[in-house]
Amino acid sequence: MQFGIFTVGDVTPDPTTGRTPTEAERIKAMVAIALKAEEVGLDVFATGEHHNPPFVPSSPTTMLGYVAARTERLILSTSTTLITTNDPVKIAEDFAMLQHLADGRVDLMTGRGNTGPVYPWFGKDIRQGIDLAIENYALLRRLWREDVVDWEGKFRTPLKGFTATPRPLDGVPPFVWHGSIRSPEIAEQAAYYGDGFFHNNIFWPADHTRRMVELYRSRYAHHGHGTPEQAIVGLGGQVFMRRSSQDAVREFRPYFDNAPVYGHGPSLEDFTDQTPLTVGTPEQVVEKTLAFREYAGDYQRQLFLVDHAGLPLKTVLEQIDMLGEEVVPVLRKEFANGRPADVPEAPTHQSLRAATAAQRARA
């Protein structure tokens, strides 16, 4: 399994001090988080994409290119690449360029985003969100896999004899995860292509996540990519840890109560009971995360959200230290126990390159 950090890049006031970081501070904090993730032995850093306040990551490949130059092992990903409002040609070329700069340490998660006003800013209609996701991704795949593309669709100008540059590193496109919280059409899209399906697993109860993952797994098998158990699944999660659960709850409560994404709603106790949020000790995080397998099966990628809601960078880096030192080593061992031999590992550039070479040798 791969373990890592995903961030949405929010600029949120710290409710305990009233101070709001500057955009520059927040951007550099995200870089520091990525570097800490590699330092403690995590596998993945993923950034969101937003084009509206209070978020800063409007150009994920710019940030990931900078992080690539300062890391050696970390897989660089996105926690959403907006497949609906970005031009597929630009996505194809940006991520292929990033592949070359990072020596293949790149994948991405496509999604529709959660901010309605973004659509008209980029000349799109939110009512066509699913159709945009389907058509744009179909074109993106062709741009990465065909040297010369002739294409005509509904949402952009036609392409005649077009070649996206640079070509994917080693002729192997980045692996794609399709991220969705509640859209079965996206689970179907991931299954149709044999791509990964990522459920952000933050706001919804286990039964909802189970239904979405089971739908994806069954359709993955229906489309002939393997058994349901061999489908490629990723999950999110959010944690806050201290040495005692009482200290964790006391320190995190003002951040939870004032967070734009879930503040002023259910109590912290109700939210931790009904969703995957874990506020407690590292041992409690291990216990709750291992339980994800009960409703998602054996899966390939687990990403944690730790830097939202105005938490100061010092605190966030402490969370990552605990993940790397006390949580992830245990999770690696326990998730490996009883894992069937035919359940694949998370795809990497190296594994995809080897599979492509083997396929070409058989052809």
Automatic annotation (TrEMBL):
Coiled coil: none annotated. Pfam families: Bac_luciferase. Residues 1-295 form the Luciferase-like domain. The keyword Oxidoreductase applies. CDD domains: Tetrahydromethanopterin_reductase. GO terms for cellular component: cytosol. Keywords: Monooxygenase, Oxidoreductase. InterPro entries: Bact_Lucif_Oxidored, LLM_FMN-dep_put, Luciferase-like_dom, Luciferase-like_sf. GO terms for molecular function: monooxygenase activity; oxidoreductase activity, acting on paired donors, with incorporation or reduction of molecular oxygen. It comes from the Bacteria. Residues 339-363 are annotated as: Disordered. PANTHER family: BLR5498 PROTEIN, LUCIFERASE-LIKE MONOOXYGENASE. This is Oxidoreductase. It comes from Streptomyces alanosinicus.
